[in-house]
Amino acid sequence: MKPEASGAVPSGMKEHEIDDRDLTPSGPTDPASLQQPDATLCPECQGIGATASGETCPVCEGTGKASGRTGGG
Q: CB of 51 within 8 A of CB of 57?
């Protein structure tokens, strides 16, 4: 006996496939749909180089740029 499926499978897809249609930008001419985080900026301070309290960012050490310590890929 197969376990019940959690939801309906969209037409044209198999049960084991992932529906990723909603992961694409909503419109190619909509600038807001194309915005993504900038991989060159420090993820902690977003390129400012300082924390909210005004101290030097401990991750990028004040440069505002992503470093090897910030991970990535």
A: yes
